Amino acid sequence: xxxxxxxxxxxxxxxxxxxxxxxxxxxxxxxxxxxxxxxxxxxxxxxxxxxxxxxxxxxxxxxxxxxxxxxxxxxxxxxxxxxxxxxxxxxxxxxxxxxxxxxxxxxxxxxxxxxxxxxxxxxxxxxxxxxxxxxxxxxxxxxxxxxxxxxxxxxxxxxxxxxxxxxxxxxxxxxxxxxxxxxxxxxxxxxxxxxxxxxxxxxxxxx
Length: 207
Description:
single chain; 10 helices; globular
């Protein structure tokens, strides 16, 4: 793979190491996984900038927390939630860790649905339709109408499924599908744990 190219293998590796035996989600690998997903979005061109720009900003905020004075509180999602709720940061801090991760979490759902749609699709499946359906079932809810409209138009320019699978940089379309089959359960797992944690603490609707 060329330097700076997206590799699905890297995403898999990051999300695989994300979840501890105690079912905690480690923020380090989570953000690594996101950095790879952002490279994926960039490799698809400017049409996804409405998601990737936001994700880049959110990852940056989280990396600052992970390197900051309170970094031991930001080792896992669980420790972050506990800390921010206990100190009232969630309410006062516009870019609290919880609010920032929630934005990434919502975008992760869309990517998860989209990649799953690519994995299970037929050779002649239209990626634009897979992408639109995934978007409508997830992120669209949180976007204003004008963004949704622009996104739907942009999806029409996506390459065909096989070209897409080659962007994954893991070999043939068949190998890409196999790798997606390995990567998606790891992403689903991280998504599920986060969803449950945020639901439990009523954080899913943070403005």
